[in-house]
Write a structure and sequence with these properties.
Elements lengths: L1 H13 L4 E18 L2 E19 L2 E7 L5 H4 L1
Antiparallel strand pairs: 1-2, 2-3
Length: about 80
C-alpha cells in the first residue's frame, strides 16, 4: 500500500502540484467501557483505517480523506 501511495504522490507532483501530503492510518482501534456504580453498563470496540491527502496546486489548498482505499487515484 505504501508504494501505491508514493506512486500517487509522484503522479500529482508531475501534474504541477507544489506540495502533496498523504497520511495513512493503516489500523486504529478503539475500546470503550462504561461503568456505573462499579458495574459494567456498556462496552464497544471499533477498528478503522483511512487516508488523508493535502495538495497545494496553483496557490490553492485541496483536501481529501476516505476510509475506502480501493481507488487511490480518486483520493488524490
Amino acid at each position: 500500500m505504501l508504494e501505491q501511495i508514493k506512486a500517487q504522490i509522484e503522479r500529482i507532483r508531475k501534474q504541477g502540484a507544489m506540495y502533496v501530503d498523504a497520511r495513512w492510518y493503516p489500523f486504529e482501534q478503539t475500546n470503550s467501557l462504561m461503568m456505573l456504580n462499579g458495574n459494567l453498563k456498556n462496552n464497544s470496540f471499533s477498528a478503522e483505517s483511512g487516508l488523508g491527502v493535502r495538495v497545494l496546486y496553483k496557490g490553492a489548498w485541496g483536501f481529501s480523506a476516505s476510509s475506502d482505499m480501493s481507488d487511490l487515484a480518486a483520493l488524490f
